[in-house]
Amino acid sequence: MPEIDALFESINVRDLLAGHDLNDPTTPLSAPDLRLLINRLESHSLRIKSKVQSYLVAHHSEFSDLFSTCQDAVSRTRLISDDVSDVVELISDRPVDVEIRKVVDEITEKTKEVRLKRESLELVSAIVGICEAVEETKVA
After folding, report:
1. Whole-number Å distance between alpha carbons of 15 and 38
2. 11 Cβ partners below 8 Å, 6+ apart?
3. The pTM is what?
4. Which segments of the chain does DSSP mark as H helices, in order?
5. Which secondary-structure segment (H or E) carries 38?
6. To the nearest whole percent, how much of the chain has pLDDT over 90?
7. How far apart are the first and last CA of the chain?
8. What's the rounded Cα separation, in Å, for the pair 103 and 109?
9. How far is Cα 59 from Cα 137, in angstroms, rounded to an integer?
10. DSSP readout, 68-79?
């Protein structure tokens, strides 16, 4: 890219007005000198524009690849942003901790029910055992 780097070097006004005595900074420039300076600056500007355009045309495929990569990155960023928005919406609509609390409460309730049924079954088993013992005593 040295050809582009050279475009950004400072412009030496002394070079553009080589015929004028610029040793005395108090000497004003005449109207023709100013017109000459403007014309040379415009010419220099056109050369810069031409070189930049040539550079862009010569490196078209690289710029095309670069812009394509940038477009892909923007698209992926939008998709990620949409996914994050969906997750945030899910969390804010129905917080996970509330859902977990409901499940824990349900498990606790079911565990209590199982414990009560097990105790009831043990009581019934004991009563059946007593009844069988009484029956055996009657038969004997």
Report:
1. 13
2. 41, 44
3. 0.43
4. 2-5, 13-16, 31-58, 60-93, 96-139
5. helix 31-58
6. 36
7. 115
8. 10
9. 109
10. HHHHHHHHHHHH
User: How many residues does the structure list for the chain?
Assistant: 140
The pLDDT tens digits for 47-71 are 889 888 999 899 999 999 999 999 9
Reading the block at residue 107, the tokens are: 């498990």
Letter string b/e over residues 57-85, b meaning 16 or more CB atoms within 10 A of that residue's CB:
eeeeeeeeeeeeeeeeeeeeeeeeeeeee
List all residues 6 or more positions away from 118 whose beta carbon is below 8 Å from its beta carbon.
Answer: none
DSSP E strands, the chain: none
Contacts from 15-18 at CB under 8 Å and sequence distance 24+? 16/40, 16/41, 16/44
Amino acid at 28: P
Residue in this structure with the two tokens 């031409």, named with its chain if needed: 50
